[in-house]
Design a protein that fits this description.
Helix content: under 10%
Radius of gyration: 17 Å
Strand order of the largest sheet: 1-2-3-4
Number of strands: 20
């Protein structure tokens, strides 16, 4: 890990930067600024940062096969036409919870957009608990609700063989795994694969690497951990 180099590419202006996604076609890195209500696109070639202002907190962004992007905006899944700076609502969730918003989201290997909700925070990590849910926006634009009573829906990813779904509800201080059916998108058999102590900080975003290890960003701790979900062994901590 001594070869890992961290470089700041945008030095200021973000309230909470989230959801980094590489857009191969544009040669640019997408991300969002949740409280800043903007979707952003950074070009490493020019060093230019472009942004599209939005009408609600935006918590994640995904590529759309037909062109453009899909974002989680407030409690909506919405299509974003970058060139026209136009947003079109696809689906609306948690209509009975006006204090909710989406948080982290990601697309599965079959093109389903998984994203979860949470109550708005009173201050960081302090909020009305059990208000969130985990949803999927399917390619046919239907929405599936997997479960509710979520505190802060956060990091998610899939194993390399697509048979396991990994998920974080931050205030559980746990990285959980589910059996995953890539054909149907169904999840089952929830269990914890790694439990953090509260002094280790709050688990937040997550991704998987080419070796099948999970990288978890720890909120309010200034660190990233790498863990083996098969053995629950911590491989790296910074």
């Amino acid at each position: 890990m001594s070869s890992v180099r961290v470089e700041c590419v945008v030095s200021s202006g973000f309230g909470i930067g989230e959801s980094p996604v590489w857009d191969e076609k544009e040669g640019a890195l997408l991300c969002v600024d949740i409280p800043g209500r903007r979707a952003c696109r950074w070009s490493p070639g020019s060093g230019q940062l472009q942004a599209v202002p939005l009408d609600a907190p935006v918590s994640s962004v995904a590529l759309r096969k037909s062109g453009g992007y899909v974002v989680t905006l407030g409690t909506r899944f919405a299509a974003l036409n970058w060139k026209e700076q136009q947003v079109t609502t696809i689906a609306h969730v948690d209509k009975d919870k006006p204090n909710n918003r989406f948080n982290d989201g990601k697309v599965d290997p079959a093109g389903r957009y998984f994203a979860g909700t949470m109550a708005e925070e009173i201050r960081p990590a302090v909020l009305e608990r059990n208000q969130g849910s985990l949803y999927t926006l399917c390619p046919d634009l239907s929405v599936v609700k997997h479960f509710d009573r979520v505190d802060i829906s956060n990091g998610l990813d899939w194993s390399l063989d697509h048979k396991t779904f990994f998920y974080i509800d931050s205030l559980s201080y746990s990285v959980d795994a589910f059996d995953y059916d890539i054909q149907t998108g169904k999840i089952d058999n929830r269990r914890s694969v790694y439990k953090l102590e509260k002094e280790e900080s709050i688990p937040d975003g997550m991704c998987i690497d080419t070796e099948g290890k999970l990288w978890v960003a720890c909120y309010d701790g200034g660190r990233v951990i790498r863990l083996d979900p098969e053995t629950a062994v911590l491989c790296f901590c910074s």
